[in-house]
Amino acid sequence: MTVTRFEDLEIWQEARELCKHFKHFKHFKHFKHFKHFKHFKHFKHFFMNFHPTSFPGLFLIEPKVFGDARGYFFESFQQQEFEKAIGKVEFVQDNESKSGYGVVRGLHFQKPPYAQAKLVRCIVGSILDVVVDLRTGSPTFKKTYSVELSDSNKLQLFIPRGFAHGFVVLSEEAIFSYKVDNLYAPASEAGIRFDDPDLLIDWKLPGKALKLSGKDRELPFFAQVDFPLFT
User: Fold this and answer.
1) Which is it for strands 3-5 and 65-68: parallel, antiparallel or unpaired?
2) Which of 25, 104, 142, 150 is the most exposed place for a label (fewest CB within 10 A)?
C-alpha cells in the first residue's frame, strides 16, 4: 500500500470533479483548465486502481490512501468508479465476521438463482483469500486464485458470481468485511472441502493450525459437485 500525502487530496478531488465532464482521454486539451495540470501524467494514480486478474471478471482493487501524522483517509467504495471499471453490480447487503488465527471459512457459494457476487476486504489483521472458478465455460474453470488481504495493504477482491470463496486468518485475529449482491438463501447454500485433493489449495499454515466448523469439514469434494452450476 502506498500512502499519499493529505496535501494531494485537493488535487485528487479536483481531478474527480473535472473528470465528471470528460469521459474519454481524447478530451485531453480541456485539462488546461485544471490548475494542477502538471500532475496530469500521474492521473491514473488519483483514483482507485482496478487490476484485472487472469480470471475473467475477477478484480484486485487497490485504493488510493491519503495519510499524515494524524492517520489516513481513503474511499473503500465508490459506485461510479466501480461501475466504470467492472460494470453494474447492485450490492444489497454488507456482512462482517471476526475470526482468530488459523480459522478457515469456506469454501462457500450459493447456487443459482441465488448466486452472489462479493466485494471482500480485511479491515483488521491479515487473511489469505481464496476463490475457485466454478464456471464450466470459463478458461479458468476449476482453477484457484489466492491473495493476502490485510489492514496494511488495504486491498480488496471483487468476486463475480460463479466462484466458491473462502479465507484463512494469518494474524492473531481478523475482521473480514464484504458486500454481496444477493441475499442469503439457506436452501441454496453449498460448498467445497477446503482440503480437496484436486484443488490442492495452499492455505499457508500448518494443517494442525487450521480450525474449521463441523459443517465446513463435511462439505463435498469438487468431484462430488453436480456440474454445471454456472456457465
Assistant:
1) parallel
2) 25
Give the tens place of pLDDT for each residue, 62-92.
998 988 899 989 889 999 999 999 999 999 9
In angstroms, the CA 196 to CA 221 distance is 6
N- to C-terminal Cα separation, the chain: 35
Phi, psi at 38, each rounded to 5°: -60, -20
Least confident of 10-24, 97-111, 153-167: 10-24
Residues tagged active-site: 108, 178
Distances (CA, A) of 218 to 93, 102, 208, 212: 27, 18, 17, 10
More confident residue, 19 or 25: 19
Q: Which residues contact 126 (CB under 8 A, 6 or more apart)?
A: 148, 149, 150, 151, 152, 169, 170, 171, 174
Instruction: Cell numbers for 72, please give them.
Output: 489516513
Whether the per-residue pLDDT at 116 is higher than 90: the answer is yes
Q: Which residues contact 38 (CB under 8 A, 6 or more apart)?
A: none
Joined together, the cell numbers standing for residue 18 give 473535472
